[in-house]
Amino acid sequence: MTGSTARRCLLGLVVAVAGLVMAAPASAAPAAGPWNAQRGPNDPPDVHGLNIADTVKVLQSWNKGVVIIFDPALRQLPKGATQDNVVASRDGLVNQSTQSPQEFSAANGPRVLVTLGELMPDLTGLGESQARTVLANRGLTLDPTPDRPPVNWVVTGQAYPPNSVVEFVPVPAAFGPPAAPPPPPPPPGPRVTLPVAIAIGAGALLLLGLVTALVSRGVRRSRRKHDKRPAEHIEVHAFAGQVTGPDVFDLPGAPPVASVPPPREVRS
Amino acid sequence: MSQVTVRAVLFGDSDPGAAVAATPAWGTVLSGLGGVLLTLSPPGQAQLVAEVSRAIGGLVNLDVVEVLVGGWRKHRALHAAAERTKPSPGGTEQVELTSHQITTTHRPYLDINVNGKKRATVHFDLGLTLVVDTMIGTVHHARLVAVQGGRCTVTAGLGCEGVPLASRQVVLDPHLVLRLADGIPLLAEDRRTANSRS
Question: What region, left, alpha or beta, does residue A139 occupy, with left being phi > 0 and alpha being psi -120 to 50 degrees?
Answer without folding.
Answer: left
